[in-house]
Design brief:
Distance between the termini: 34 Å
Helix content: 40-55%
CATH architecture of the largest domain: Alpha-Beta Barrel
Structural class: alpha/beta
Shape: globular
Radius of gyration: 20 Å
CATH topology of the largest domain: TIM Barrel
Order of helices and strands: EEEHEEHHEHEHHEHEHEHEHHHHH
Strand content: 5-15%
CATH class of the largest domain: Alpha Beta
CATH superfamily of the largest domain: Aldolase class I
Amino acid sequence: MSQNLPKLRIGPVDIDFPVVQAALSGYSDWPMRVIARRLGAPYTLAEVMLDQFILNVSKGRKAGRYIRVTDEEHPCGAQLMGAEGEQFASAAVKLVEAGFDVIDLNFACPVKKVLGKRRGGYLLGVPEQALEIVARVRDALPPEVPVTVKMRRGLDDSETSREDFFTIFDGAFRLGAAAITVHGRTVRQRYEGASSWEFVREVKRHAGQRTVLGSGDLFTAQDCLDMMARTGVDGVTAARGAIGNPWIFAQARALAAGRPVPTPGLQEQREILAEHYRLAEEIYGPQRACRVMRKFGIKYSRLHPRGEELRDAFTVVKSADQWQAVLEEWYADK
């Protein structure tokens, strides 16, 4: 059945389909984003970057790997994490200068180390600090560059956390945020338990015409369309479901249009894996590329009919030649 999904709009940025790639710490680097774009992602977010890193390592090869944006990526967003409004704002300016089209503020990360440094999800418990960050970043950037926010539904399930959530949510829009992404888990849940789509639905009803994206438990293209249908959000961000499955975006487009869902055969998977590796070598160099790509190969292996065996093969790859050998052995059309 065809679903007439509206285009997504984030401030002045038009996005032609409402299923986008989330910021993925340790994964959504330049090669992953480029592959996702080529396979149907209309908008991608770079992996979360620490404001202090952007300010202190603004030049050189290491910085270039993180803040690289190429022509085929636009529109592309950068996600920032930190604790102080002034540093957030200065880093946001540098990321816009590097070519990113949207700045996304991370108020969601549940990692213990991040929380201990008063970053990420910690900010959901300090509305004044969170809103100061939104205000400073919005004021520092040109009006045509949208500022967005990523939130979880609260630190925990307490009434205080709920109140803080809506204080930040409404305040961020009042200060000029163009869109807010809402993940249906609490910070305390981390990645365990179900994401509350009902809470996402409640938030969208509360938001009215303001742009809300949903996040959480979007592992397939059908999940993405189901969340939009059940919650009414304006778009969804595919996160873990997009790692090793960049076809999720083309599949969502096909489902929405009522077309047959494309399933990549072994030859197509091999070609994408080879190109992903080539892009990784371009940005990381031959030695580092292999280490980076092992984790991607393990994720791609889930689509293979002998996924567990292939995962083990990718785990021990230590060179480009070994990577190529795995592709030749496991992705040969038989």
